């Protein structure tokens, strides 16, 4: 019976991850800590109410160290001596700058949310992860953060998103190298282009599909994948035309 903490759970992929985990047997998923900046998401509140205490709503703003520290104390209290098994760093944001690099005036803002926030959350929960059975951290990334594939996404007007996700990938590797000796696993996962507020309704996949496939990866991961950057696998999308294929393989850095 494993415990999970997910950041950015009020909408989009984070909300879908909470829903997907809650649908699994309690013998597999015991406790889900769904974190959000505010508790004003009707969909998340409905999931919490229907979970019979299995989902715990925790206030956490990844840009506010005080709320991160308070969240860590709250989760530690709820775990009652047990460790945290899985941390899924999902909270993040996307920029849109049709003027390209010349119009990019929000890099620090995007970086603080997509990279620094992940770092602050991860280090705050490290003591609990060390005491967990699975000791796994999954960082939600994107193939747009792959330097090797940059030319494929050259026309996408999201420079700050690309830059910060590339930085997130390096942060993942740094953590993987630093804590491998303690048995911790750090993994970057691209969930695909999903139909969310950020991804738009033009995206490839329903958000529920992305959540299902991310959870499949999370539950199967272990030290053998420490420091890897992997894509989801969606049957039928292995050789799709265009830049996005979902073949379940490692992504080039």
From TrEMBL:
One of its GO terms (cellular component) is cytoplasm. GO terms for molecular function: oxidoreductase activity. InterPro entries: Fungal_SecMetab_SDRs, NAD(P)-bd_dom_sf, SDR_fam. Signal peptide: none annotated. Pfam families: adh_short. It comes from the Eukaryota. SUPFAM superfamilies: NAD(P)-binding Rossmann-fold domains. Belongs to the short-chain dehydrogenases/reductases (SDR) family. This is Short chain oxidoreductase. It comes from Penicillium argentinense. The lineage of its organism: Eukaryota, Fungi, Dikarya, Ascomycota, Pezizomycotina.
């Amino acid at each position: 019976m494993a415990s999970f903490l997910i950041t950015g759970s009020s909408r989009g992929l984070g909300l879908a991850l909470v829903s997907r985990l809650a649908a699994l047997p309690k013998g597999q998923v015991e406790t889900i800590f769904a974190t959000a900046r505010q508790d004003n998401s009707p969909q998340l509140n409905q999931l919490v109410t229907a979970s019979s205490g299995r989902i715990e709503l925790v206030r956490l703003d990844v840009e506010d160290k005080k709320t991160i520290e308070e969240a860590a104390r709250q989760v530690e209290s709820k775990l009652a001596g047990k460790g945290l098994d899985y941390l899924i760093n999902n909270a993040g944001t996307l920029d849109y700058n049709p003027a390209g690099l010349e119009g990019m005036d929000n890099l620090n803002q995007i970086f603080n949310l997509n990279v620094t926030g992940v770092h602050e959350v991860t280090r705050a929960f490290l003591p609990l992860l060390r005491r967990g059975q699975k000791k796994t951290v999954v960082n939600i990334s994107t193939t747009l953060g792959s330097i090797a594939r940059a030319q494929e996404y050259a026309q996408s007007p999201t420079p700050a998103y690309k830059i910060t996700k590339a930085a997130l990938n390096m942060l993942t590797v740094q953590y993987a190298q630093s804590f491998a000796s303690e048995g911790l696993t750090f993994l970057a996962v691209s969930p695909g282009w999903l139909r969310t507020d950020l991804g738009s309704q033009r995206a490839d996949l329903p958000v529920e599909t992305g959540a299902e496939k991310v959870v499949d990866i999370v539950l199967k991961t272990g030290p053998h994948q420490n420091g890897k950057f992997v894509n989801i696998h969606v049957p039928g999308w292995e050789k799709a035309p265009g830049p996005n294929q979902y073949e379940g393989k490692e992504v080039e850095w």
